[in-house]
Amino acid sequence: MKPKNTILCVDDEPINLAILTYILRKDHKVYTSTSATDALKLMEKITDIDHVISDFHMPGMNGIEFIKLAKKNYPKIIFHILTGFHKNQDVLSALKNKLIENYLEKPFNKEDIFKALS
Fold first, then answer.
1. How do residues 36-50 score in pLDDT, each as one tens digit?
2. How many CA atoms lie within 13 Å of 4's alpha carbon, on the beta-carbon side?
3. Which of 35, 80, 109, 116 is most enclosed, with most CB atoms within 10 A?
4. 7 in a domain, yes or no?
């Protein structure tokens, strides 16, 4: 059975990546990265990414900064932000300007994730 989507999950907390992989692996091909910089390098190698789910708060580069850089080179990928904090001005602006498709809250609900990826 062919996976529905290829998804890159970016989060500096390995436990979140493990949970996302566990939730998604049955129906999707899942790649993970613990930093935005490494995710950008990974995106150069993987050509079939459909969705990126990125944490907002990460060291070095936050999720919105990462998505702005990635979207320039990969405009067809659908980006989602994941955060344990309320929507801030950066997230609201990213939603308004269609930089991101969805805002997902931590702790995440698998139904919300599946809905975002459909």
1. 999 999 999 999 999
2. 11
3. 80
4. no
